Amino acid sequence: MLKVHRDICGYCGCCVSVCPEGALELIDAYLSVEENCTSCGVCAKVCPLGALEVVHEKQV
Amino acid sequence: MKSKYDVLVIGGGPAGALAAKTAVEKGLSACIVEKRPAIGAPVRCAEGIGKEALQEFIEPDTRWISAEMTGATIVAPDGFVMQLSSQMAGSKVGYVLDRKFFDRELVWKAAEAGADVAVKSRAAAPIIENGVVRGAKVDFCGKVTNVRAEVVIAADGVESKFSKWCGIDTTVPVREIMSSVQYVMTGIEIDQHSTVFYLGNEVAPEGYLWVFPKGKNTANVGIGISGKKSGAGHRAKDYLDAFVKKTFPHGRTIEYIPGGVSVCRPLECTVADGLIITGDAARVVDPLTGGGIYNAMYTGKLAAETAADCIGRGDVSKKALMAYDKTWRASKMGKAIERNYHIKEYLIKQPDTKLNEIIHSVSKINMTEFTTLNLVKEIIRVNPKLVLELGALAASLR
Ligand SMILES: Cc1cc2nc3c(=O)[nH]c(=O)nc-3n(C[C@H](O)[C@H](O)[C@H](O)COP(=O)(O)OP(=O)(O)OC[C@H]3O[C@@H](n4cnc5c(N)ncnc54)[C@H](O)[C@@H]3O)c2cc1C
Ligand code: SF4
Ligand code: SF4
């Protein structure tokens, strides 16, 4: 599952541009994650601030 | 906002503003929908643009120009400083804009010319009929309205979703997104008329770090690194913080700006039936410099001109709209993107030792005018062996 750390996110859209599934959308200052996210982690890698994290089910 | 326009523009950045303004000047009805509550804010840009490039579209105005640049400085990985004086920088010197005001001015100009503008209004889905884009569902504070159009111009920036919803793959490869952070800093010692670029794998892997002055003691201090090089503990922000701590320990940060810049090739095709894609959404940023303001304005204007033509002839099919795609690819901008893509691909593969060597040799050249084209020609002249390494690049210069 993809977790958005909203306290860190600066709503820039960098992550949205690399998501192969089109699962992210920036709604002004709110980053939304849709159900088709595959937890591939590509977005978490490129986020300049480190606001995204793939959390494995066990840890939830 | 009405329920039908000749042209519906998604996004109120430089691409969208120029598209809407041009459309109404051509006698069409047009509306810009912008999802943010305020045009131009927050800023996602280092705000640099060439003087001549800017003047192609608008007369410079001190209300939205922060500073005028008369030179540029490149700092090599080994710390060697190469200065490009004003004579060398020639006509290529530029401005550092104040994009909050600049973007607003462009949208004002579009509105003044007769375009409608709707802010806090997000295109939430396209309207597609028989495979043809016919408008968008626009969400304003939870209320969704169908807005129909002969042609939709997608100008929705790096975070573009509209074209993806229309079935076009706009995904930027991880290695070709510049993961970026910028601080607007004040109370720092800078040359207020020169931009500074720092290169090197220690400073900014597969990217660069910039200091763009915005006046006395104030500058945009930012960095872009390849998404491939980004990860926990070594993100753009980590690199920038290390640089700032060392270089501007007493500076104060008055604005905190993350962002993404695509440095990939443009979309394979930038039109579909009833749809034209412009600016960052079309991935037409210069892959070497990361500059996209000019390219956004250029493609926005061209998109509206093409739309006007095609609407006038009653044919908004992909085939008809292809005139747009063909024209920008053949333009000076299109050619520069192709050439600079090769230069970028070459430079990012070089170790710091090689970058040092190149910068040292280039600094000895007496260049009459500093342009990337002249730069490459000189690099090749000084290192003839490079022609082999540069392959496709060298071919594109002939
Ligand atoms: C850190 C950084 C530094 C940069 N430095 C420079 C520089 O020095 N010089 C330069 O030339 N370029 C620079 N760029 C690039 C430049 O900012 C962009 O190329 C330029 O803003 C592109 O203009 P645009 O109109 O295509 O997109 P944008 O300016 O991004 O505008 C797109 C607009 O569309 C809106 N939008 C998105 N989706 C929707 C939707 N569904 N509905 C309604 N509205 C929507 C957005 O809110 C946004 O306002 C930089 C970029 C970054 C991130
Ligand atoms: S890249 Fe990071 S900071 Fe930018 S919108 Fe995505 S999560 Fe937020
Ligand atoms: S984890 Fe992968 S699929 Fe999920 S939002 Fe991020 S990039 Fe998209």
Would you write up a description of this structure?
Chain A: It comes from Methanoregula formicica (strain DSM 22288 / NBRC 105244 / SMSP). Chain A: It holds the Pfam family Fer4. Chain A: GO terms for molecular function: 4 iron, 4 sulfur cluster binding; metal ion binding; oxidoreductase activity. The complex is a heterodimer of chains A (60) and B (398). With 60 residues, chain A is of the alpha+beta class. Chain A has one domain: Alpha-Beta Plaits, CATH 3.30.70. Chain A has helices at 14-18, 42-46, and strands spanning 2-4, 24-27, 30-33, 52-54. The mean pLDDT of chain A is 95. Chain B is globular. Chain B has 13 helices and 18 strands. Chain B is 34% helix and 28% strand. Chains A and B meet through helix 1, strand 2 and helix 2 of A and strand 12 and strand 16 of B.
Give the integer mean of the pLDDT values of chain A: 95
Instruction: Indicate the CATH architecture of chain A.
Output: 2-Layer Sandwich
Over all CA atoms, what is the radius of gyration of chain B? Answer: 21 Å
- How many strands in all of chain A? 4
CATH superfamily assignment of the largest domain in chain B? FAD/NAD(P)-binding domain
Rounded Rg of chain A: 11 Å
Average pLDDT score of chain B: 93
CATH class of the largest domain in chain B: Alpha Beta
Strand content of chain B: 25-35%
Please tally the helical runs of chain B, counting DSSP H or I stretches of 4 or more residues.
13
CATH architecture of the largest domain in chain B: 3-Layer(bba) Sandwich
CATH topology of the largest domain in chain B: FAD/NAD(P)-binding domain
H/E series of chain A: EHEEHE
Provide the domain count of chain A: 1
The total of beta strands of chain B comes to 18
